[in-house]
Write a structure and sequence with these properties.
The chain is mainly β. Helix content is 0%, strand content 47%.
């Protein structure tokens, strides 16, 4: 083996006369590689690879700068070269890139190198295909640890990218079908960047303690991010910006963001990111949301876990629409489990919100969203909550149980539908409807709640309650200071106080074909005018079946009030009401009674038999009552 070394115009040229491994000794200037080369000592100055199918093995020796123009790298692979391997080099302190290959250089390998303190990037490959960057350490460079621009079908594998605090650890710009696998990006400005890149795979990477986000994807599509960890970064763990049709699976975002100001999420999709799928990811202990969608549509989030984040577990906002949240778990987050704020036409199905610091599911502003088969349990406030901006949403077959306050709660929400839901064992109300009008409740169950099963309160007007079951609550259904409520075919049984309590200005309420059984009181109408009770059944309640107090101009038609503990039907201080075609049998005291100054009432075609004291009673404290065509066994004052 012979090695000829000569200086020519400041350029050192290595020429090999045999195809075996020559060794260049300590040198300075520019070293030109045209054959397999092994360094035996450090080299100061550039190395230019000017041949195909050659290996440069620095054997751990340093190649140091600062270098000179016109080179783009401390080690510069000439444009278009192929089959080149650069390995085991320490490339230090160049005013440009540590290693650079441009002009479409392809099928080259960069392995086991240390790139440190270079003014631009550690390794920059510009164009080409089939390149492999493996097992390198790139740190304290002025740009990016490893960057590909315009590459295809290449690999970045098993590298350590650290303290590149001006830009990033790894970046792909305009690159396709690149595998980025098993890399660690630590304490850089950003961990991993994909910009205008598609069809790439990022797998088993770690982004930790970076100043900004762990993984940033911008205007990029059809990439796969899987089984990677983003932890302790200063901004988001994973953030997609105007990025479409990407898949994120099995990733972990842990303890990212600024906890002092509750900023930055574990996973973020923003600025019209669409058609992405996030599945089986975990967001835990992040400073803001676990998962956030902002102005992003048609994404699917499935089987993700959001745990112990400072704010919301999973949130869609800023006009996000058409997204699907399915089988996700939000637990122990500081605010709500799931939140839709200015979010529309989204579907939430089979999710669980458990032990969160506010509501399980919350819609402050949102229209036409569908929530079905979700469960909210053990949350610090309400299970499912809606505020004034929640309009025309649908809740199907959800469960709210063991929440500290209400199972379902509404404040100012309109035209929403609740069908087939269950509210049980909550600390206050099963379904709370407050200042909320034109909503539908059908086929729901409210059971064993500490407060009322359903409470319609304060100008919650013209709501419809149909075929609901309320059992074991403090009250069954309460309608208070709200007009035009229609209750149809509901069942109230075993409630501690009333089955139905229509009170304090709940005027024009309509109760039709409802059942009140085994409550303390069956149906109570207090301080309410122009109510209609039609074909209801109030039986075996501990006190009265139907009780009107200070309520005027109402109609009681074809109701049944049998076997109650005191009265079947009783009116006190109530005027101008019409009782027609009702049946009140076998009650412990009186079948039908007018008491306490009740006046100008019409009682006609009613039946009262076998009651304990008397079948019908008028205490004559009122005037103008008309009793006609009734069928009573015994009467008093008539």
């Amino acid at each position: 083996m012979k090695v000829f070394y000569r200086a020519l115009a400041g350029v050192a040229l290595v020429v090999a006369s045999f195809v075996i491994v020559p060794a260049a000794s300590a040198s300075s200037g520019t070293l030109v590689i045209t054959a397999d080369t092994v360094l035996t000592e450090d080299h100061e100055g550039h190395i230019l690879v000017e041949a195909d199918n050659v290996t440069l093995d620095c054997s751990g020796h340093a190649v140091s700068g600062p270098g000179m123009a016109p080179f783009s790298g401390g080690i510069d692979v000439q444009g278009g070269r192929t089959g080149v391997t650069v390995k085991n080099c320490k490339v230090l302190g160049f005013g440009v890139n540590g290693i650079f290959a441009g002009g479409g250089a392809s099928n080259n390998r960069y392995e086991g190198n240390l790139l440190e303190g270079n003014a631009n990037h550690g390794i920059h490959l510009d164009g080409g295909s089939g390149n492999v960057v493996v097992g390198n350490t790139s740190s304290d460079n002025g740009g990016i640890g490893v960057v590909f621009t315009g590459l295809v079908d290449s690999e970045i594998r098993g590298n350590i990218l650290e303290s590149n605090d001006i830009w990033a650890g790894v970046a792909l710009f305009g690159s396709q079908r690149v595998d980025v696998v098993g890399n660690t990006a630590r304490a850089n400005s950003q961990g991993f960047i994909l910009d205008n890149s598609s069809g790439n795979t990022l797998a088993a990477n770690t982004a930790e303690q970076n100043i900004g986000p762990g993984v940033l994807m911008v205007r990029s599509s059809e990439n796969v991010l899987r089984e990677s960890t983003s932890a302790g970064n200063g901004a988001e763990g994973f953030i997609l910006v105007d990025a479409d049709q990407n898949v994120l699976t099995g990733n972990v975002a842990d303890n990212n963001g600024d906890h002092e100001v509750s900023a930055f999420a574990g996973f973020g999709l923003i600025d019209e990111s669409a058609g992405n799928r996030l599945e089986g990811n975990t967001a835990t202990r992040n400073a803001d949301e676990g998962f956030i969608l902002e102005a992003s549509s048609s994404n699917v989030l499935r089987r993700n876990v959001s745990r112990a984040n400072d704010q919301v577990g999973l949130e869609a906002r800023g006009g996000s629409s058409g997204n699907t949240f399915e089988a996700n778990l939000a637990t122990a987050n500081g605010a709500s489990g799931f939140e839709l704020s200015d979010a529309h036409n989204n579907r939430l199905a089979g999710n669980v919100a458990e032990s969160n610091g506010f509501q399980g599911f919350w819609i402050p502003i949102g229209t036409a969203n569908v929530l079905e088969r979700n469960r909210a349990t053990l949350n610090a406030d309400t299970g499912f909550g809606l505020d004034a901006g929640a309009v025309s949403n649908t809740f199907l077959n959800n469960i709210a149980d063991n929440n500290q306050f209400n199972g379902f709660g509404m404040g100012g929400a309109t035209e929403n539908a609740f069908v087939g839901n269950m509210a049980r064992d909550n600390g206050d109300i099963g379904f709370f409807v407050h200042f909320s009008s034109h909503n539908l409740f059908r086929g729901n169950t409210a059971k064993d709640n500490d407060g009322p099963g359903i409470w319609v309160l304060s100008a919650a007007n013209e709501n419809a309650l149909e075929e609901n079951t309320v059992a074991g609550n403090s009250e069954g259904i309460v309608v208070e200071a709200s007009t035009g409520t229609v209750l149809t075919a509901n069942v109230a049984t075993g409630n501690l106080n009333t089955g139905y309590w229509i009170r304090e200005g709940a005027d024009r309420s309509i109760l039709r074909r409802n059942v009140a059984q085994a409550n303390t009181f069956g149906i109570v109408v207090w301080d309410t005018d122009s109510a209609t009770l039609d074909s209801n059944s109030a039986t075996r309640n501990d006190a009265a079946g139907v009780d009107l107090l200070r309520s005027d101009d109402s109609t009681l038609l074809s109701n049944t009030a049998n076997a109650n503990g005191t009265y079947g039907i009783v009116l006190s201080t109530s005027n101008g009401n019409r009782l027609e075609g009702n049946t009140a049998n076998v009650n412990a005291w009186v079948g039908i009674a007018l008491l306490g100054g009740s006046s100008n009432n019409v009682v006609t075609v009613n039946v009262a038999r076998r009651n304990g004291i008397v079948d019908a009673q008028d205490d004559l404290s009122g005037t103008g009552n008309v009793w006609s065509a009734n069928s009573f066994g015994t009467t008093q004052g008539i």
